[in-house]
Specification:
- It is a single chain.
- By secondary structure, the protein is mainly alpha-helical.
- The chain has one domain (about 10-270).
- About 75% of the residues lie in helices and about 0% in strands.
- It has ten helices and no strands.
- α1 packs antiparallel against α3, α6 (about 140-155) packs parallel to α10 (about 215-265) and α8 runs antiparallel to α10.
- The longest helix is centred in the last third of the chain and has 49 residues, at about 215-265.
- The radius of gyration is 28 Å and the shape is rod-shaped.
Amino acid sequence: MANPANSPLKQQIPFEMVYQVVALIVALILVHLVYITVIRPNADAIMSERAERLAQGEDFIQERSLYVVLKDFEQEACFVLMLWAMAIMGYKGRVALRERSLLSDDIVKVSEGMSILPEDTREYTRGIQALPEETQSYLLPRALMAALQRFASTRNVQDVSEAVKNVCETESNRLDTELSMVRYIAWAIPSIGFIGTVRGIGEALGQAYKAVEGDIAGVTASLGVAFNSTFTALVISIVIMFMMHQLQLIQERLVLDTQTYADQRLLRHLQVRSQ
């Protein structure tokens, strides 16, 4: 029988890849629908009204409109990436919380004062192997299974402690690696905002001759694109980074609490008969 400690994610990886692709497509569709039905029509109406009032020579104070701030393609791309990152982090957070719920269960039923000998490990491993296959792939069952198997083979409690530590460290590294896509998105969002800034400034410079003639409407509109894209991207980046750090905190606590669980519920009950 395959050891769950050596194959933690053979079944989860394909599903997670499909989930990420579907999440990206759904985020793209939802954001684009909101833009073409709500944001851009309202932004066009507001800008048309402003242009008419300016053409009539009317003096008025232009109020900052959220629709105008968000109307450009860079802001739309930032919102797509934001929803995609939230979907990825939501999935990983849900898995981490589900794994954490196992810490309140007695997977290895050992009463206070009982001792576990190397000959008894087969009985306790059966309890872990009786768990649902998905649950066996979680960190806690894998750590406990590795501990019991190491104790049965080496009869050394120190080796068992090292086995648990290695499983937890490997899991910590894996969780950190799997956040690479979220880190990339958190980096890409401000970069997209900067692209909007460069595009807006470039358009403003291209219309500088009109400003010299007294028509500054085109220049101000282009500069609005530059500043609005940067503003939106930075705000979204702050939100994504906050959520990512909260997810990392949940995952790190899961690994540390799993190691503590193994120490208190299993390792301190292990005993080797003196020869």
